[in-house]
Specification:
Blueprint: H1 21-32, E1 43-47, E2 51-57, E3 66-71, E4 74-81, E5 100-107, E6 117-121, E7 124-130
Antiparallel strand pairs: 1-2, 2-7, 3-4, 4-5, 6-7
Amino acid sequence: MASMVPYRSVFGVRPVVPASLFDAFDDMMDIASSPLASKAFPIDVEDKGDAYEVKAYLTGVSKDDIDVELNEGRLSISVNVEEKEEDKDKNFLQKEFVSYSATRGVYLKDAACEGLTARYADGVLTVGVPKFVEKKNVTKVAID
């Protein structure tokens, strides 16, 4: 018969019920801002017919911290944000910015290596990837 305990034990540890709703919210924020939390950024990939348009949402990131690479059909967008040196000497009461790096990739099977474009404005990186057009040289062969 099933137990009447309202919480399932995970790894032998039962969760502690917070004293208030505010404590529960603070606990969630601590988990979300932990170093193990994913710092991945959202991306959109749109097929425009003759090209792909990839948008990466990188709010608060400098253009110099972004790297875009296409390698054998795999488009990789990497971000490496470092804490500024002048911030290290300040006396913060609370500091939530941390250095981080993240990479997102998408496989575009017919991506061409030439003609790629990248534009970064208002926190959105837009990458244009033309599609490889296979040239079909059809030659009619006469039969003797």
